[in-house]
Amino acid sequence: MSTSTAPDFYPVVKDLPRVVVAPGVTLELLVVAADGDHCAGVDLASGALVRAWSPEPAAEPLAPYDVVAVTLDVNGDAVPDPAEPEALVLAAPPERRRRLSGRRAEKLLRPLLHPKGTPLLGTPAPAVPFWERSPDHPSIALVEPEGSISLWREGSFLACRFGWLGHERELPCLDRRVATHMDRAGITRMAAGKGDRLVVSLTPPIDGRCHKVVEAILPRP
Q1: Taking the CB of the first residue and of the last residue of the chain, which one, N or C, has fewer CB atoms within 10 A?
Q2: How far is Cα 97 from Cα 211, in angstroms, rounded to an integer?
Q3: Quick one: residue 73, left, alpha or beta (phi over 0 = left, psi -120 to 50 = alpha)?
Q4: DSSP string, the chain
Q5: Residue 88 covered by a domain
Q6: Domain-embedded: residue 164
Q7: What are residue 163's phi and psi, to 5 degrees?
Q8: Phi, psi at residue 218, to the nearest 5°?
């Protein structure tokens, strides 16, 4: 019997596109999640899913399917988790340009959906020791759950429940838009929209571990 405490990693079975660019280059991203100094989105040029870290938040709140312009910084190592293969460091906050929805957005998202029948982000564990993180495993994914998505508000905590691999999963949800809506409506239970997807990611290390969370509930475009 193995005595290892390291998580069991599985291949994600899909070779996802990656951005290979030089400092100073400007990209356009289709936003799928944004909070504070972090913005996750799809690079319109390459189709890659990226996690952009900026020195400060955007001037205006960003919403799913906004298109933003970002300029890469010279310091490519200034990220909270250097093992994130999708990480980009920005010289300035993202600048909102326009919105993209409908078929054009769906065409960008569908190739990036997490493969069915495999553990989320390549491991069944809810958290990964920071020293076990590796850039050959993704730190973020677009997930189309099995069945419906439900949200549970308990005090300041928001939980997201959804089906995956034949079982109901629960992860912390960091979507401030959803939390604010529930608080204003005075509700503690809510179902997401039919066909909504999830942005699931690993947090930067917290007490030595990177935790799986739902960054955003992503409506169908």
Answers
A1: N
A2: 32
A3: beta
A4: -----S------S---------TT-EEEEEEEEEETTEEEEEETTT--EEEEE-SS--SS---TTEEEEEEB-S-TT-SS-TT-TTEEEBSS--EEEEE--HHHHHHHHGGGBPPTTS-GGG-SSSEEEGGG--TTS-SEEEE--EEEEEEEEETTEEEEEEEETTEEEEEEB--HHHHHHHHHHT-SEEEPPTT-EEEEEEPSPBTTEEEEEEEEEE---
A5: no
A6: yes
A7: -90, 135
A8: -105, 110
Dist CA 123 CA 91 (whole Å): 33
Average pLDDT over residues 99-127: 93
- The pTM (predicted TM-score) of the whole model is 0.88
Domain that holds residue 119: 111-218
- Say which residues have a Cβ less than 8 Å from residue 72's Cβ, sequence separation at least 6: 21, 22, 23, 24, 25, 26, 27, 88, 89, 90, 91
Q: How many structural domains does the chain have?
A: 1
Amino acid at 34: A
In a domain, 152, yes or no: yes
pLDDT (tens digit, 9 = 90+) per residue, 119-166? 999 889 999 999 888 888 899 999 999 999 999 999 999 999 999 999
Asked if residue 23 belongs to a domain, the reply is no
Tokens of 9: 């990693």
- Residues 104 and 181: their CA atoms lie apart, in Å, by 28
Where does residue 173 rank: exposed (0-12), middle (13-18), buried (19+ CB within 10 A)? buried
Structural contact between residues 29 and 94, judged by C-beta atoms closer than 8 angstroms: yes
